[in-house]
Amino acid sequence: MPLAGLVLLIGLPPVASVLGETFYIGLFSRVLIYALAAVSLDLILGFGGMVSFGHAAFFGAGAYVVGILAFHGMEESAFISWPFVLMGTDNALISWPLAILTSAGLALLIGAISLRTSGVYFIMITLAFAQMIYFFFTSLEKYGGDDGLSLFARSRIGGLDLNNDATFYYLCLGLLIGFILLSYRLVNSRFGMVIRGSRENETRMGSLGFPTYRYKLVCFVIAGAGAGLSGALIANQTEFVSPSLMHWTVSGEILVMVILGGVGTLLGPVFGAAALLLLEEFLSLYTEHWMLVLGPILIFVILFARRGLYGSIVERIAQNG
Fold first, then answer.
1. Domains, the chain, ordered by start
2. Chain centre to alpha carbon of residue 153
3. Tell me: the pLDDT tens digits for 118-129?
4. Burial class of residue 313 (count of CB atoms within 10 Å of its CB; 0-12, 13-18, 19+)
5. What pLDDT is attached to residue 296?
6. Strand locations in the chain (E)
7. In this structure, how many other beta carbons lie within 10 angstroms of the beta carbon of residue 120?
8. How far apart are CA 207 and CA 209, in angstroms?
9. What stretches in the chain show pLDDT beneath 70?
10. In this structure, are residues 236 and 151 in contact, taking their beta carbons and an 8 Å threshold?
11. Can you spell out the DSSP letters for 253-274?
């Protein structure tokens, strides 16, 4: 099943081009980007039991790093002048790693505090931090404030033309596959075993000598880095960044993608992102109140497909096989 899905994704751009429906290349690029953000959240939610409601902070921070560096690149001015000089740039080999590092740094700061709590307290602290960051970027009038910041072109990366939608699509697909493989290796390693054990019984894992706090913090940072990469991609896909990327509703949407696809499955969030964004796209063609239709669908999935769309399909295949 994953192989069939991969074949469909690989074949989508040429098929869409032949049919004259190139709109779908952009739409599915967006699906892949949000799928990457959802997989990064699933890493801490599905395997670590950390219900974060502030994941959009890392997503938006990654986008803003790319946007702000591109802004200074157009002005040929320095983004940082002290203690070292960092000139603005649209070079992806500079701005994208900085976006990942910035989001990872934010995750380290937020996680170091939030992970000292659990349950609803953890949820509320991550939400509070995300809203603080949201209002911080809203106050940056130099970079558009509430109105956001437009990019004049997509980032440059080697000999690739990212302004070509098909090229950008395949780059997003490659990065998503790479992050899924990295996450798969992590969750099936000794590191992943400790994370999953901490989810089930953190006290017992601690009594066995595992520093669970440090393990969970590293996992939280990796998830933040993944969200930062997806933020860098969404900035390029839309050629626009705004504080709305960091709003709590975006965290909620990413969380819904994970739940809809299947918590703790890694591939499930990809299905969840596709389902949610495609439903949003097509239902909005018929009514501006599309969420009234989406709501019952989500309730149905939660009630009758407890493991999400992907998890339930895999479970059904295993039973019949």
1. 2-320 (1.10.3470)
2. 22
3. 889 999 999 999
4. middle
5. 83
6. 78-80, 86-87, 149-150, 240-241
7. 9
8. 5
9. 1, 306, 314-315, 317-321
10. yes
11. HHHHHHHHH-TT-SSHHHHHHH
